[in-house]
């Protein structure tokens, strides 16, 4: 999983005053358990299905947070690399239509709603939190927290 986020703060003239970027790369592998239930709806071809899956991924996380303030007068950089275990859970619910092809094979088409939950996938350095800054004309946002909590 790769994620790249960036926020710019410009003054009234459009000049760059502050910049925050957060690059995160997560790679991992691990065991997965899953289950699926697919009963028919009156016919053998049309039915609904419910599926679930859970994984424990042993991964390596690499993160780089860069901050520039005061029109390049102050630059801060934080790099974190760590190994950890991530949990991933998925749940799916939908309709499916299946068709047998001979005695040994079949095909199906699904339309579903699926959700995923990733536990602790944000990285070691949490993103800065921004709020509107109405006291300073020309500035659109101000970072109020940028903390890095290493394990």
What features would you highlight for this structure?
mainly beta; two-stranded antiparallel ribbon; 8 strands; 0% helix; elongated
Radius of gyration: 23 Å
Helix % is under 10%
Tell me, rounded to a whole number, the average pLDDT.
78
Number of strands: 8
The H-and-E topology, N to C, reads as EEEEEEEE
User: Helix count, per DSSP?
Assistant: 0
For the record, give the distance between the C-alpha atoms at the N and C termini, rounded to a whole number.
Answer: 20 Å
Explain this structure to me?
It is a single chain. The chain is mainly β and 151 residues long. Helix content is 0%, strand content 68%. It has one domain. It has no helices and eight strands. Strands 1, 2, 3, 4, 5 and 6 form a six-stranded antiparallel β-sheet that branches. A hairpin with a 3-residue loop joins strand 5 (74-101) and strand 6 (105-119). The radius of gyration is 23 Å and the shape is elongated.
């Amino acid at each position: 999983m790769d994620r790249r986020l960036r926020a710019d703060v410009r003054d009234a003239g459009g000049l760059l005053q502050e910049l925050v970027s957060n690059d995160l790369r997560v790679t991992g592998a691990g065991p997965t358990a899953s289950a699926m239930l697919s009963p028919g709806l009156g016919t053998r071809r049309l039915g609904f299905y419910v599926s679930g899956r859970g994984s424990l991924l042993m991964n390596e996380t690499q993160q780089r947070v860069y901050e520039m303030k005061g029109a390049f007068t102050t630059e801060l950089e934080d790099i974190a690399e760590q190994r950890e275990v991530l949990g991933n859970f998925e749940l799916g619910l939908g309709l499916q239509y299946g068709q047998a092809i001979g005695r040994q094979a079949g095909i199906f088409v699904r339309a579903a709603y699926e959700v995923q939950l990733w536990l602790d996938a944000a990285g070691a350095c949490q993103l800065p939190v921004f709020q509107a800054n109405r006291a300073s004309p020309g500035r659109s946002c101000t970072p109020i927290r940028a903390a890095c909590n290493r394990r």
